[in-house]
Amino acid sequence: MNMQHKPLPAEIEAALGLDRSSRFAKWAKRLILLSLVITAISGTLWWYNAASSTTAAYTYQTTAAARKTLVVTVQATGNIQPIAEVDVSSEMSGVVRTVNVKNNSQVKKGDVLAELDSVRLRAQLARVEASLAAAEARLADARATLNERQIALNRAEALSKKGISSVQDLDSAQAALARAEAGVLAAEADIEVAKAEVSMQETDITKTRILSPVDGIVLKRSVEPGQTVASSLQAPVLFTIAEDLTHMQLEANIDEADIGVVKHGQTASFTVDAYPGRDFPATIETIEFSPNVTDNVVTYKAVLIVSNDELLLRPGMTATAEIVTQELDDVLVVPNAALRYQPPKKDNGSSFSVTSIFMPRPPRPTRQTSPIPTGERSIWILENGSPVELKVKTGATDGKLTQVLSGDLVAGMEVVTSSRQAKE
After folding, report:
1. Neighbouring C-beta atoms of residue 47, cutoff 10 Å
2. Which of 145, 150, 315, 401 could be disulfide-bonded to 333 (CB atoms 3.0-4.6 Å)?
3. Residues linked to residue 93 through DSSP beta bridges, in sequence order
4. Looking at the whole model, is its pTM more than 0.70?
């Protein structure tokens, strides 16, 4: 059975959206809109690439390499102290009767700084002196007895020779003489004991006068009249005396990283907060081997001798020292900023395109860089307005300037220290 397809009425096609002219118009609008978007994107990317490809202008700051004297230093901090500081104590216990000095008093060796009450000790001295007198009297009596016994023995011996006295009488006389001799020795020993006691009491009385052991200045007085001093367990410190404040020492802490270049006899200069802008000279006297460890930081104490003729420096002042470890004359130097400088990097392969959005570039291979040998650095000089690299070998540095040991650099050449993009 043959069936013929009859076309659908126009109303039905319109209702079903099958109108051909309408469909074409919609696709045309979409194509035009897509073309406009692509054109806008392409124009924007072209403008960006054009702007990026323009070589940026830079201004460069330069400094001339020069031949100078390079002074290499090590920095350390410490405190000013007297070279000799003596603590004066009391060997005797008692009540302080008088104090003759105060802080900052100038004293000479042997000056009386203070006195303790000595009434009790003088009474004890009188007693032992009386004991000494009694012992001397006993010695005189013993000597008299000895003389008497010697006479009696002589008489007994004479009578014995004549047969008048018996042997027993002679023996008794000899024994009595021996006892008299022993009595004299005992009395003499008693006198020595009494004399020793007198000497001890006199010494104790002398110790009640506290004397200065050195010439110097009283830094600290820790006692007042009427105060009780007890020295039975530990002698209390009553005065602290600095022997000579015209010569002092700086006890500086040297970091373990710097101790290898610090030597005996090196010169130094230091500053204190009390006199800003003024440098004081010093010389290293000793460097201790014993380490000081604080919060896992290891330092070593160096003692520097300081002249203080003006008496400006005081014990305990905090000082910052710079120790000269190396002084190089007439060497080629450049600023450290020149060694740190790196020129602006060129923008290679950073442009965009439509294809780069959909097809990204493959990753760049890792760049192999050869390490710079120890002591070899790069500096940059200007040629035709652009930085050109020079390889140099460097030496000592003072923190601001660095010595150039070898390379194509000569004095007077301008080295680049910084750059910035010029404003359009």
Report:
1. 10
2. 401
3. none
4. no
